[in-house]
Amino acid sequence: MRSAVLQFAFEHLGAQRADSGAFTDNPASLAVSARLGYLPDGTRVVQRRPCERAVEQRLTLTPDGFRRPDWRVAVSGLDACRAEFAL
Q1: 41 close to 30: Cβ distance less than 8 angstroms
Q2: Which domains does the chain have, with CATH numbers?
Q3: pLDDT per position as a tens digit, 66-78
């Protein structure tokens, strides 16, 4: 799913960057991001739940760094709604 959204953003909407994040105690989420090509972009401490703080690893991805899958997203009808994306 994340690969499809990234393909759509980079290849059809012209996005130049995708930002994401995951808590440092969630290695599975961080691993998915790494497989897609995301790179670390700093950390921050956030309140996850009342009275609980956690460290969030910020991540960033550019079109050149995106590790594309071997399948392609098919998009139809984009021209009709392009204005909704402020394009």
Answers
A1: no
A2: 2-85 (3.40.630.30)
A3: 999 999 999 999 9
